[in-house]
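Protein: Alanine--glyoxylate aminotransferase family protein
Species: Limnofasciculus baicalensis BBK-W-15
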Amino acid sequence: MDNKLMLMIPGPTPVPEKVLLALAKHPIGHRSADFSAIMAEVTENLKWLHQTQNDVLILTASGTGAMEAGIINFLSPGDRVLVGSNGKFGDRWAKLSKAFGLNVETVTAESGKALNPEEFKEKLVADTEKTIKAVIITHSETSTGVLNDLKTINRYVKDHGEALIIVDAVTSLGAVNIPIDDWGLDVVGSGSQKGYMIPPGLGFVSVSAKAWEAYKTAKLPRFYLDLGPCRKSAAKNTTPFTPAISMVIALQVALQMMRAEGLESIFARHQRLMGATRAAMKALSLPLFAPDEAASPAITAVAPVSVESEKIRSVMKKRFDIILAGGQDELSGKIFRMGHLGFVCDRDILAAIASLEATLTELGYESFTPGAGVAAAAQVLTQS
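Structure follows.
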């Protein structure tokens, strides 16, 4: 049956009907008063979502573009940076930083494990000459379903006094509580196709006053991703270049929906969906790739042993039109990932788990009692 596709991946995430209808509207002039009014509302609501009074700037770019902007606007060639790397995206920021001639030191952890904040503390405390200019962290490592301890790492960066903290919040912003102003985060990048509930195409960068001071002396090359012109334009409710007009209009609607739900309810929903998903996997005897204490509310990675993850994904798609994500790079074929962020509700989790049980049965997997996964998920959902 057409049009029954169900996305249960960490991005793109499902898009609400209200947002889809907003995308269907005719574009308007991006230099018009009408568009400026939309930009003003969107900017206010972005600050609400980011829990900040800092600038939150909109880029026509992916989350990677937002992170590149977050790095190149505040650093200079040869600057020493610490990059946390415990998955594909931490690795990406290390590669990106090296591409721009930064002096990169990585703090690593095995895939499926969280970064150790004490390793950052050790390097930061040892830096008595204050040569470390930035610490770059992936908050929710999308490739493994691990949530790194940003709060503790950030505290050690603050104790250092000089270094900026630059955060990839691509799959955590809108799913996890990130009080930017309370924690004093300097640069936070994210992307539209995750917790924002709209299609890919927009990137967002929150910038602190401390980061803007660093901007004044930063010497890495930049033009389209130069945040200085973005800031000046945003103050006038406009953009330096032609924006993705229809996407901004869709964002307006999505943010209105998020404000109506409320921050605490949004965070509680994601915790509930994560808990239900993980309980179901345990009931189905499917090993979880990340431990409970480091689990991301955005995505759950599963490492099946006696049944192939790619066969699970294939049957889920062909029989039930449900899309699960596979493993990336060295994890290809070893794990599957179930997204539960953005426009996802309790019903979606129950439908996905029931379909997964049917898939496992079809594949001859016998290490579970039929109905156990759905029952475990339902128990979490009804008690939360």
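Remarks: Residues 17-260 form a domain with the Aspartate Aminotransferase; domain 2 fold (CATH 3.40.640.10).
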